[in-house]
Amino acid sequence: MFGNYLIGLREGLEASLVVCILIAYLVKTGRRDALKPIWIGIGVAVGVALAFGAGLEFGSQELTFEAQELLGGSLSIVAVVLVTWMVFWMRRTARHLKAELHGKLDAALQMGTGALVATAFLAVGREGLETALFVWASVRASSDGTYAPLVGVLLGLLTAVLLGWLFYRGALKINLAKFFTWTGGMLVVVAAGVLAYGVHDLQEARFLGGLSDKAFDVSATIPPDSWYGTLLKGVFNFQPDPTVLQVTVWALYLIPTLALFLAPIGSASSVRVKGQKTTDEKAEAEASAGTTNA
Questions:
Q1: 97, 174, 200, 247: which has the fewest C-beta neighbours closer than 10 Å?
Q2: 49, 128 contact by CB (below 8 A)
Q3: What is the pTM of this model?
């Protein structure tokens, strides 16, 4: 449940911040007349995201078992790719998000009502579609026959809306760059579990082999129906009897992705600059030595 709560909180807060920035900018610049198109765009984006999620849920029920597993596994992998891109993008742009949205909004104000609706729709719609896809994949991966995963997502979204309102009212101030870094790191861990579950779906669909090759089986030690087994599954999508391929994919994704995500921003460029400086100094030294010998 915690993993799904984190997804709802993280994804919902991004959308809430976008809405708060758009609304606050219009209010402060005296353009309250443009609020209605913005709310229309936001409403349409939310409706499209809900319809997309409902389509995934109910549309997949009409398929055969193998087709359901193939669809679920494929979309789980797509969701992990999108979320991974999103957490890296937000970590780099969190500090400049306000300026970027203000620029788009200024351009939309000059173009008219339709442009305002489109700006709000695109700004919130992207977050909504990503959220719907990843929530569907995560809930499917951690579902234990109860409504706990869905409740976790809804609680996360409600918390995000509350935090967004507090931000707008100026009652809450936190370091957004650090917040998105820490929650993004935890979301990478959740995504690794979703990826492993997606691979298992593809194995059950017979798209990938190795379903019977178990890496380990600790079902006797950690029963799936125990409170701690349920907790591990809800937080990390833990499976007591994963296949070798699942564990391999999980490790190959989690370790390098988390290392890159937690590395200081700009460290790669710093290394390149330092390497270039060393090369230049070496070239200058060789040139000087050649001049001296001559």
A1: 174
A2: yes
A3: 0.66
What does the chain look like in DSSP terms, one character per residue?
-HHHHHHHHHHHHHHHHHHHHHHHHHHHTT-GGGHHHHHHHHHHHHHHHHHHHHHHHHHHTTS-HHHHHHHHHHHHHHHHHHHHHHHHHHHHHGGGHHHHHHHHHHHHHHH-HHHHHHHHHHHHHHHHHHHHHHHHHHHHHH--SSSHHHHHHHHHHHHHHHHHHHHHHT-----HHHHHHHHHHHHHHHHHHHHHHHHHHHHHTTSS--TT-BS---TTTS-TTSHHHHHHHHHH---SS-BHHHHHHHHHHHHHHHHHHHSPTTHHHHHHHHHHHHHHHHHHHHHHHHHHH-
At 160, is the secondary structure helix, strand, or coil?
helix
Which DSSP string corresponds to 68-118? HHHHHHHHHHHHHHHHHHHHHHHHHHGGGHHHHHHHHHHHHHHH-HHHHHH
Quickly state the pLDDT bin for 268 (edges 50, 70, 90).
very low
Which candidate, 140, 149, 127, places its Cα nearest to that of 83?
127
pLDDT number for residue 270 = 42
pLDDT at 1 over 50: yes
Please work out, in degrees rounded to the nearest 5, the angle formed at the alpha carbon of residue 49 by the alpha carbons of 103 and 79.
90
